[in-house]
Amino acid sequence: MTPFELLEPRSMREAAALLTDGARPVSGGTAVMLMMKMGVLRPERLVSLRAIEKRCSDIAAASGELRIGALATLTALERSSLVRKEAPVLVRTLRTLSNVRVRNVATIGGHLAHADPHMDLPPVLLALGARLVIADPKGERTMPLEKLHAGYLETTLGRNELIAEVIVPAQGERRAAYLKCTTRSADDWPALGIAAVLAVRDDRVREASLVVSAATDIPKRLAAAEAVLREGRIDDALLKRAGEAAASEAGVMGDAHGSAAYKRELLKVYLARAVRAALENR
């Protein structure tokens, strides 16, 4: 690992102003430090976010939404009574997200900004309709989470921008589930992940939000599969059509966890399982 200077600002805006050429932000450090040890990253300066004001790690509920500070750890999310009440699907997802040592230090902002398509929370948050508050040296702006990821380990954030807060609409009466297929342990990187959030009335799907990850370069909404489910009564035939639509539209890619052909078949199977799991959950 090459030598570097460590800076510890006290606010998000101050931290954003320090992100000049050769500087990288670090919060939990679970990804950045590994990449530095491997020689993939060689920053001249690290801008630590650990001393940022406490509000940036708070979890609160207001006006039917969860407001999660970007520096909240994944363990804090998992243990939060507010998250359990307003978006229980997040708590269920976190139980098999990496291991407890990582969850104790990894932050939600870093989790999203790392932009690895194998991450578990992005598809769930995207399916719930999450938005991000982005800070820069001059102020803040809000954007949909679906606008964040540009490609493998790439985001649309400017050099002087940081995720300050994640805003998640309450799950409410919607039913939701996240399923993943791993080729090794249950908390390993998934070969495929899929989130399903459904609004159901009179035994019919009125609205559907389906997002696939790990099999694609960024988390992707499955609009064609959603259209198949909408206004339908769930049965094996409908789920088969939705799975085929998803496999056709997703742009599945192969990697060390499985070939593209294998992942397309996984998508068909796991979409049906995720929808059925969502129908059983709140």
Task: Walk me through the structure.
By secondary structure, the protein is α+β, with helices and mostly antiparallel strands. The protein is 33% helix and 27% strand. It folds into three domains: 5-48, Uridine Diphospho-n-acetylenolpyruvylglucosamine Reductase, domain 2; 57-169, Uridine Diphospho-n-acetylenolpyruvylglucosamine Reductase, domain 3 (2-Layer Sandwich); 175-280, Enolase-like, domain 1 (2-Layer Sandwich), CATH 3.30.390.50. Helix 9 (223-229) packs antiparallel against helix 10 and helix 10 packs across helix 11. It is globular and about 60 Å long. The chain starts with a strand and ends with a helix.
Offer a concise description of the structure.
Helix content is 33%, strand content 27%.
Find the count of extended strands (DSSP E, 2+ residues): 14
CATH first level of the largest domain: which class? Alpha Beta
Low-confidence stretches: none
Numbering strands along the chain, what is their spatial order in the largest sheet? 4-5-10-6-7
Provide the number of structural domains. 3
Ends apart, CA distance between termini: 46 Å
How large is the radius of gyration?
A: 19 Å
Order of helices and strands: EHEHEEEHHHHHHEEEEEEEEEHHH
CATH topology of the largest domain: Uridine Diphospho-n-acetylenolpyruvylglucosamine Reductase, domain 3
Structure classification: alpha+beta
Shape: globular
Number of helices, counting only DSSP H or I runs of 4 residues or more = 11
The biggest sheet amounts to:
5 strands, antiparallel
Average pLDDT reading: 94
Give the fraction of residues assigned to helices: 25-40%
Q: Kindly estimate the percentage of residues that lie in beta strands according to DSSP.
A: 25-35%
Query: What's the architecture of the largest domain in CATH terms?
Result: 2-Layer Sandwich
